[in-house]
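sry for the spam today, last one i promise. C-alpha cells for design, 506 residues
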C-alpha cells in the first residue's frame, strides 16, 4: 500500500508482509503472527503461512489501522455492504453505511478510505509474497508446483483487489477506456528506498488497468490447479474472475470463450445450498471462523441478520425490489433466503450471527451462467441466452410457472432486461448490484444510481406487504461526480514525490 508508507514503512509494511496464520488450514483461519522478514521465506511451511496471511488480510483486514474491529474490510462484510448500499435493492436502516447509501461521501469519509487502504494492503502483501517465491524456488525451498500454485493465488488476489478499487474509484471501461484509472501495483513496497518508486506509480488509464487485470488472470489460470474447494483460488476462480472482468469491458465473445472453459460446477437445485456449505455453485469465497472473522461490526450475519434471530439488522431487503413486478410472488427465494419481523424483511443468506462463520461469497457459478446469458443475448443468440437464464430462474419457481422464451420477452432488449432483473434477485444481499450499475451506466443503459427507499424511513412490514407509498431519495446521476468515490485525501497528501490527481468534482 502506498498511502502510509513514507512514515510507517518498517512497522506498517515489512511487519504486515510476513503475517502468517498459526493454523495451516486456511478454512480455519486463526489470528496471524509476525515473524522476522529475513526468515519469512526460509521454509515451505512458513511460505504457505505467508500465503494464508494474504487471504486473512483480505478476509478480515483493518479499519483505521486496527484488525481488532476490522469491520470486514475489504472482503468481509465491507465489499458486500458497499456494493449493496450503492444500489437500490438493499436498504440502509442505520447510520453505519448511511454515507454510502445516501451518496454524501467526501475525501475524508472513513468507509471509502478504509476500502482503498485495505485493498492496497492486500495488493502489497500479494506483491511481497510474489517477490519472495522466486528465490525460494531457486534455492530449493519450494518445488515448481508449490511455487506455481502460490504465484497463481497471489496473482488472483492482486487482480481481485485491483478490480474492486477500479469499480469504486474510476469511471467504467464501457464509457471510456482512456479515462483515469487507478495505480496498478505490480511490485512490492517493503523497504524505505522503494517508497519513492512506489509513489511514482500514478493513475494509468482504465484501459491499461484492465489489460493488466487480464494479464494477471491469464497467468493465474495457467498456474493454478483444478478444483480444491472454494476456500483457495483455483483455475475455476481465475477463469470466473476473468469472465467478470471481460463483462465489464463489454468483451462478449471473450466472456463466452472463457465460459466454455469452466468445468466442474453447476447451478444448485436448491437456491439456499450455496449459503449452507460447500456446493457445486461455490467457486470462491473468503472463509470465516469463530476465531477469525470481521467481528460483530464487519461480519455478514451480524450486519444483515434479522434482530429476531440474533443479528443487528443494519441492512434490510428494500421494499422496492420486494414489491417489484419482476420478482414472481411464488419464487422460493422469497421464503428460503429471507427472514422477517415487524420492522421489515432481512436477508437470510447468512445465518450465524453468534460465531460469525458464514463465508463471504465472491464468485458463484450462477453469476457466470447469467453473464454468459448476457453475452449470448448481446451477440444475438437469444434462445441460448434464455436457456441459461431459465437454468437459474426456474429452479426457484413451481412447475406451474412457465419458463421464459425469447419471443415472450419481446426480443433482445426484453431478454437483457430479464437477465439484469434475475441477477438482482439471485444475488440480493451479495454486493453485486453496484458493479452492474457501474458498467451499465457507462454504456448508457442506466443513468447512474436509481432512486432508493429513503434512508431510515422504512420501519414497518406494511411497506412490503401493502401498497403503502415508499418514500424515495438518494439517486445519483451518472454525470455527477458522486457516481464514483473520491481518492482519499490522505493518499494524495502523503505522496509527496508524485501526488496522484483527485477525481473531478472533489
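last one done:
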Amino acid at each position: 500500500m502506498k498511502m502510509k508508507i513514507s512514515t510507517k514503512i518498517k512497522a506498517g509494511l515489512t511487519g504486515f508482509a510476513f503475517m502468517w496464520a498459526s493454523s495451516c488450514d486456511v478454512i480455519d483461519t486463526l489470528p496471524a503472527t509476525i515473524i522476522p522478514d529475513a526468515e519469512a521465506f526460509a521454509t515451505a511451511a512458513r511460505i504457505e503461512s505467508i500465503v494464508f496471511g494474504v487471504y486473512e488480510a483480505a478476509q478480515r483486514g483493518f479499519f483505521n489501522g486496527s484488525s481488532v474491529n476490522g469491520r470486514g474490510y475489504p472482503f468481509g462484510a465491507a465489499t458486500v455492504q458497499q456494493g449493496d448500499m450503492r444500489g437500490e435493492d438493499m436498504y440502509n436502516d442505520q447510520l453505519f453505511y448511511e454515507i454510502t447509501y445516501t451518496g454524501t461521501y467526501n475525501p475524508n469519509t472513513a468507509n471509502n478510505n478504509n476500502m482503498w487502504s485495505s485493498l492496497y494492503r492486500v495488493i502489497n502483501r500479494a506483491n511481497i509474497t510474489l517477490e519472495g517465491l522466486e528465490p525460494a524456488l531457486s534455492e530449493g525451498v519450494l518445488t515448481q508446483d508449490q511455487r506455481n500454485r502460490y504465484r497463481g493465488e497471489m496473482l488472483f488476489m492482486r487482480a481481485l483487489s485491483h478490480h474492486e478499487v477500479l469499480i469504486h474509484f474510476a469511471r467504467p471501461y464501457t464509457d471510456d477506456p482512456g479515462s483515469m484509472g487507478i495505480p496498478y501495483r505490480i511490485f512490492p513496497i517493503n523497504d524505505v528506498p522503494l517508497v519513492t518508486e512506489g509513489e511514482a506509480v500514478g493513475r494509468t488509464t482504465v484501459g491499461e488497468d484492465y489489460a493488466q487485470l487480464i494479464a494477471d488472470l491469464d497467468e493465474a489460470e495457467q498456474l493454478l490447479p483444478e478444483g480444491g474447494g472454494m476456500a483457495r483460488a483455483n483455475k475455476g476462480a481465475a477463469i470466473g474472475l476473468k469472465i467478470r472482468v471481460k463483462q465489464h469491458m463489454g468483451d462478449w465473445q471473450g466472456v463466452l470463450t472463457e465460459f466454455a472453459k469452466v468445468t466442474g460446477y453447476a447451478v444448485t437445485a436448491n437456491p439456499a445450498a450455496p449459503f449452507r456449505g460447500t456446493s457445486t455453485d461455490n467457486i470462491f469465497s473468503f472463509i470465516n471462523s469463530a476465531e477469525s472473522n470481521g467481528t460483530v461490526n464487519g461480519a455478514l450475519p451480524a450486519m444483515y441478520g434479522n434482530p429476531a434471530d440474533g443479528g443487528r439488522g443494519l441492512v434490510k431487503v428494500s421494499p422496492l425490489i420486494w414489491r417489484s413486478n419482476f420478482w414472481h410472488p411464488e419464487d422460493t427465494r422469497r421464503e428460503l433466503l429471507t427472514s422477517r419481523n415487524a420492522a421489515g424483511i432481512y436477508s437470510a443468506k447468512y445465518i450465524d450471527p453468534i460465531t460469525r462463520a458464514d463465508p463471504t461469497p465472491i464468485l458463484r457459478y450462477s453469476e457466470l451462467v447469467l453473464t454468459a446469458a448476457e453475452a449470448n443475448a448481446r451477440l444475438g443468440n437469444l434462445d441460448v441466452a434464455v436457456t441459461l437464464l431459465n437454468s437459474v430462474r426456474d429452479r426457484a419457481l413451481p412447475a406451474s410457472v412457465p419458463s421464459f422464451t425469447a419471443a415472450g420477452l419481446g426480443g433482445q432488449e426484453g431478454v437483457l432486461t430479464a437477465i439484469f432483473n434475475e441477477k438482482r434477485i439471485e444475488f440480493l444481499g451479495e454486493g453485486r448490484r453496484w458493479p452492474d450499475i457501474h458498467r451499465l451506466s457507462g454504456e448508457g443503459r442506466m443513468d447512474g444510481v436509481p432512486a432508493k427507499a429513503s434512508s431510515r424511513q422504512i420501519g414497518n412490514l406494511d411497506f412490503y406487504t401493502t401498497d403503502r407509498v415508499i418514500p424515495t431519495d438518494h439517486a445519483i446521476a451518472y454525470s455527477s461526480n458522486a457516481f464514483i468515490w473520491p481518492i482519499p485525501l490522505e493518499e494524495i497528501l502523503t505522496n509527496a514525490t508524485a501526488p496522484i490527481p483527485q477525481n473531478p468534482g472533489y
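Residues 273-482 form a domain with the Serine Threonine Protein Phosphatase 5, Tetratricopeptide repeat fold (CATH 1.25.40.390). ok im logging off now
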